[in-house]
Write a structure and sequence with these properties.
Layout (H helix, E strand, L loop, with lengths): L10 H4 L3 H28 L9 H7 L1 H19 L7 H26 L4 H16 L8 H15 L16 H24 L5 H20 L12 H20 L12 H14 L3 H8 L1 H6 L5 H17 L5 H11 L28 H9 L10 H20 L3 H11 L1 H11 L3 H14 L3 H23 L15
Length: about 475
Amino acid sequence: MNAASPPPRLATLDNLSWLVRVRLFATALIVASIYGWKFRRLQRSLKPAECFLTADDRRMLKLRRRFIAGAAAGYIASTESLSQPLLARSNLIYADLGAFWSNWLIAADATMDLEALALPEVRRLFGQSLNAMLSKVDSRLPNDLRHRLRARSGAMFGNDVPEADALPAGPDFRLRRYTLRMAAEIGNRISDLVALYGAQPLAKALDQFYSRTLDLMAAQLETYDQAIVDDDHDFGWYRRMMHGKFMNVLLAPTALFTNPAAGLYPEAEMRLAFHLLNRNFLHRQILDDLLDFEEDLADHFANTLIYVLVSQGRLAALMANGDAPASAVMAELDRSGLLVHPAKGLDDDILPDEARSADGAPLAVDTLVHAALRNGPDDTSVPLHVLVDKCMQQRTALYDAWARRDHATVQAIVLKSGVANRILGSIAEGADQPRIEDDLKRCMARSNIQGGVYTYYARTLRTYEKCVSKWQSHTAPQSRHEPARAG
């Protein structure tokens, strides 16, 4: 991708009428004014004696901005997809849900990092969070759902999770206290929805929400392994973990958007739209990884940029043997995820892949390996054995620097590898864009979700543009044309 390459825009969303955009902007402004006030009132309501968050905490974690953004997303999605009047009570419930969900996410993540919690402590925190989200509605859930949730929760967190009130007062526990307060507020709003619609009509929505929240927590617990860089933790491992974490951040609250009285259940269309937008930008979590690389590295956390190099090193080591059977090489390519979309195999039930072939002929294994190991146009003409040697040396240097916590050397290896070029080049190519456009048009024709989808698209596009600006300051990314694997 060069400086003149167009961003991965979607005409379906770019061509929304100015009336729709003005309405969205005006709605966001109104919600911002209301929820800016609600955020201030919330912070004043927290008991100082229990040492809730400081002003510095709120600024550093950008809690007010996220609170307002979550509220706006919830309100817009409710008014549009559920065809509710502007002042309908349910709109405010969904706006509250979005606000508290956004703050619970960031507070839980910050608690893990800033309070340096051990894994058992994080399990306890997540168990307490789930209990807080469930406590007001547990007795009203269908029996089979209640039993399934208790069984899975017990397996993940144990059956003796202490109450949130068991946390001692004091500044060392302020992030945990705030996390649990946000979880309790989420539980209160779910209870409001049950009171509004009834537990039985909401049974499927509640099942999806709590199941996806548990999936999110399970993926979040796996992030502790991001301090490990070795052959077992490559991009094939990371993409499964990041997909489960990131998509459930979006899809868990989405499950609750329903209006049984009007027969409106937009969850399927909202879920499809999020997956389509995710594929248009390769993966939103990968964009975040590009932006946060230095910050993650300073915390000794690996992300996409490092794990792609690990996968390339694994593949190169297999090829260096010289006698690896083609079946073993293909199995390693499948495991690595280097030649497929990062979500392939993870959302295929939603977006099944279309069969592709190269003029009906399978591509040679060496051709596929070459495509998997190269990171930019400079690698295109390099012989395969030279690429293999380069990736082997890169892996050895990366593992050594990571073990020594030599972050400056790790950063230098990543920059020299050109792996960021590979990622941004893949996005710029937009190989799946025509299909994404068609699917998105059909999706938005079935349900009135264009406002929420456009808002998410615009934010993701801005993130992508920030990534391009950042990495072009290192070296201008170039377009990378990989052969697709036949069939």
